[in-house]
Design brief:
This protein is of the alpha/beta class. It has 17 helices and 15 strands.
């Protein structure tokens, strides 16, 4: 089963699959899939919504599943597994739909991978929920062909996507036409946005900080009227930037502000402010009534001056900020971009890579300092290359939060100590364990397809069949073989990742690449909290064994525990270990 939801960062955009609730209830009572199905054919229910505009727990896809279950019953079928892609479009090639891809794989093999529940096809409220691009239509059709059943139910109608009776051609034409229609809609949308911008109409999209949301009862549009509670804070941020204050300073300031009720001032989406969010709010021309389209300020075609919108915005008299203020702010932004250069130098590129992926414990280390809003920071410490007067101390880890950035540690001592700590833990808990390999479920199917293609080619070479007659068959066989080979490679990668800890030895560690080592660390460590150097102690004090707090993974559902291996004792789950000899303040 797949589930891309993250409880720590709730989002409307997610993909998941799960056993149909009715079947799950029967299984929970001790029943079997066969008993529940009876004479009915097991199929999957696919639900997808491009833009989830409803408030609640994915109401739209839930409605689709409910309709799919009713429509499946009309054809003596039963929904056994539900797949859903919420807030994900099917019209863009670059967008991945995890639930759809997983459903196609499961239909190809005839059962859901984790539970083994059989699948003979799928049902959807309309074909556009399943495919809009030709490649997706072909992927579903190939899966139904390889499954051997070919069941696809659209609304209340059962369509034959397997037999070449004209339905296949109709499906491809519909899919191709859908792709053309998508391009037309995108072009129409861009044209409409341009027309509305030239007219000064209120732009759509989500609510921006400083403005009220929509209210149909009084006819108010989103971002049309100022929010009296937020507007003063937006103006103050603009003034601070105009006065030359840094993005970091402004971010720290807004994160410390509270309203009359003692509630913190959050973003329009209810989250904490970041430097990027502050920069986006201040540089958006909407606050002075302007709008950017295709990288340029929209101007009045008659006067050449910026076209002011029909929404409430700042004025120089009441707010003391204006278009001129924005130009002053943007001149600094553009100057910084010019200083950086449009093409990074080789040295700059190397630095970027180094900061992102060179350091063994970046991403694991967390800041333990109390930040400007009296909370434990707990932000990630990133690796940085030592420069200037600190170069002699070597590279260092540093907190990247704009409200903190006060905790730093030298890389070499941290890596040396924590690496030995991890290796000792692995020696104790995973030495002598044997790798556990799960056979790939498509091995036999792939072998059969390879044999079929070989026989077809042999018949052509022997003169028993004409190439024109078997061309389409060869094309489909080759496409299916390629799909299964890709799936096999993905399976092998997954197996390799799952067996990183099995058969453990220090020689294995020495042969690993950095990304593999970081993967192992993430499987055994939850985090390492770096505590600040106590007041009164020199930042050049010797190595201190009490300033790194290590937390080991102990949850069997998330930890890569091996059968027969004990979980770490409670004393090993969270304890203080060591710090390095320097707390950098940069």
């Amino acid at each position: 089963m797949i589930d891309t939801r993250n409880p720590a960062r709730p989002s409307k955009t997610f993909s998941r699959s799960y056993v149909a609730p009715e079947l799950q209830a029967h299984l929970d009572q001790g029943g079997t899939v066969e008993e529940w199905l009876g004479e009915r054919t097991p199929i999957a229910s696919l639900a997808r919504i491009s833009a989830d505009r409803l408030k609640g727990d994915a109401i739209g896809v839930s409605r689709q599943h409910r309709n799919n279950a009713r429509n499946a019953a009309l054809h003596n079928c039963a929904v056994v597994v539900c797949y859903e892609d919420n807030n994900i479009t099917a019209a863009k090639r670059e967008i991945i739909r995890p639930a759809f891809l997983q459903m196609v794989k499961d239909i190809t093999h005839g059962y859901e991978e984790e539970t083994g529940i059989p699948l003979k096809g799928c049902v959807a409220v309309e074909r556009e929920r399943v495919w809009r691009l030709p490649r997706d239509f072909i992927a579903l059709q190939d899966a139904l062909v390889l499954n051997g059943s070919g069941i696809f139910i659209e609304d209340t109608n059962s369509l034959n996507l397997v037999d070449d009776d004209g339905t296949i051609i109709a499906g491809l034409v519909t899919s191709g036409t859908g792709e053309d229609e998508v391009r037309k809609v995108q072009k129409r949308t861009r044209r409409n946005a341009k027309d509305r911008a030239e007219e000064g109409a209120v732009p759509g999209g989500p609510r921006r900080f400083g403005w009220l949301g929509a209210d149909k009862r009084i006819g108010r549009l989103t971002n049309e009227k100022k929010d009296p509670a937020e507007w003063p804070y937006l103006v103050e941020m603009i003034k601070k930037r105009s006065d030359g204050r840094s993005w970091r300073h402004i971010t720290g300031w807004i994160r410390r502000q509270t309203d009359a009720h003692g509630n913190r001032i959050l973003t329009a989406r209810g989250g904490d402010w970041s430097e990027q969010g502050v920069k986006g709010a201040i540089t958006n021309p909407a606050w002075w009534g302007g709008r950017i389209l295709d990288g340029e300020i929209v101007k009045d075609t008659k006067t050449g001056s910026p076209k002011l919108g029909r929404w409430e915005y700042a004025g120089p008299e009441q707010d003391e900020v204006s278009y001129e203020t924005w130009k002053q702010i943007m001149s600094g932004v553009y100057a910084h971009r010019l200083h950086r250069g449009t093409q990074p130098s080789p040295k700059a590129s190397e630095g970027t890579v180094t900061r992102a992926g060179k350091y063994l414990f970046s991403g694991t280390l967390r800041c333990g300092r109390i930040n400007d809003i009296d909370e434990t920071c707990y932000s990630k410490l990133n690796g940085n290359k030592g420069t200037g007067k600190n170069a002699k101390y070597g590279d260092y880890y540093r907190c990247g939060d704009p409200n903190c950035r006060g905790v730093g540690r030298r890389v070499d001592p941290v890596d040396e100590y924590l690496e030995e700590l991890v290796l000792s833990y692995l020696d104790k808990h995973f030495s002598g364990t044997a790798p556990k390999l799960t056979p790939w479920r498509g091995k036999e199917k792939l072998a059969n397809l390879l044999m079929q293609r070989k026989k077809v080619k042999a018949s052509v070479e022997a003169g028993e069949a004409d190439w024109d007659d078997v061309h389409d068959m060869i094309t489909r066989l080759t496409r299916n073989i390629k799909t299964l080979e890709e799936e096999e490679r993905d399976h092998l990668k997954k197996e390799s990742k799952g067996n990183l800890l099995r058969g453990w030895s220090r020689k294995k560690w020495a042969r690993m690449e950095l990304d593999e080592k970081k993967e192992i660390i993430s499987q055994v460590l939850t985090s390492v909290v770096v505590l600040p150097v106590p007041e009164g102690r020199s930042d050049k004090a010797p190595f201190d064994p009490n300033l790194l707090k290590v937390s080991w993974r102990k949850d069997k559902k998330t930890s890569p525990q091996i059968e027969g291996q004990e979980s770490p004792p409670e004393s090993e789950v969270a304890f203080s270990t060591t710090a390095v000899d320097r707390d950098l303040h940069v």
